[in-house]
Amino acid sequence: MPGYIGAIRNYACFYEGTLLVAAFNYPARVTAYERDVLQNLLTYSRFLQLVAGQIRDTEEAFHYTIQALARAAEANDDDTGNQIVRVGSFARELARGLGCLPNFCREIALAAQMHDVEKIHIHPDILRKPGRLTPDEWRLMQQHTIYGARILGDAPRLQMAREVALHHHEKWDGSGYPAGLQGEAIYLAGRIVALADIYDALRNKRSYKPAFSHQEACRIITVGDGRVQPGHFDPAVLATFQRIASHLEEIYETLKD
């Protein structure tokens, strides 16, 4: 510090809370106008700080509301709150592996948690039924993605969540529902969450199936077992899954029930 003694002179500064605006070494006397400019800069900076805090609080409240709605939908099923968090985490890592932009990866982690919000419309006796569904029950289940899209509505902030809810049961080969879409006609977010959801479903016990190990779940996804076939998935998403499967297993072990 000794080298700086006397180096700063003719300065003006204003502070409020944690903010400080300062100007040093003016070549002439600081005028009243220049002091006003600095003070206005401090006021504007303080205003931006307050707005940023409000935006942050609003975003946190939005995330909490989304997660609360997702948890409410899961109350009708055997799933727990951890299931929606796992699927969101799997989807985020798959998106990263595909090279998606950071904002997309952050958004899909939240949107994926809403993939089954429509379960709030389905009677728990159907969701938890241990045997095969009747034709009428199956038709009702195939409508649940449409219910989910309606619940989420047309708000721009929920666009990806709506796409996920509507398309996560569509299949790359066109054998999915509700519209039988094929290939890239399915939204990318829906294609990613489709695989994330299947992996989590295979790992967990259901009323109609046992839990599978990570190795067995990977085998079913990549080779097929009659119900699940590799042709159901976007080839790029499937290749990414195979590449990062060990990382997804780590996430599952961290967040398992």
UniProtKB/TrEMBL annotation:
Residues 58-257 form the HD-GYP domain. SUPFAM superfamilies: HD-domain/PDEase-like. One of its GO terms (molecular function) is hydrolase activity. Transmembrane segments: none annotated. The lineage of its organism: Bacteria, Bacillati, Bacillota, Clostridia, Neomoorellales. PANTHER family: CYCLIC DI-GMP PHOSPHODIESTERASE TM_0186-RELATED (PTHR45228), TWO-COMPONENT RESPONSE REGULATOR-RELATED (PTHR45228:SF8). Keywords: Hydrolase. This is Metal dependent phosphohydrolase. Pfam families: HD_5. CDD domains: HDc.
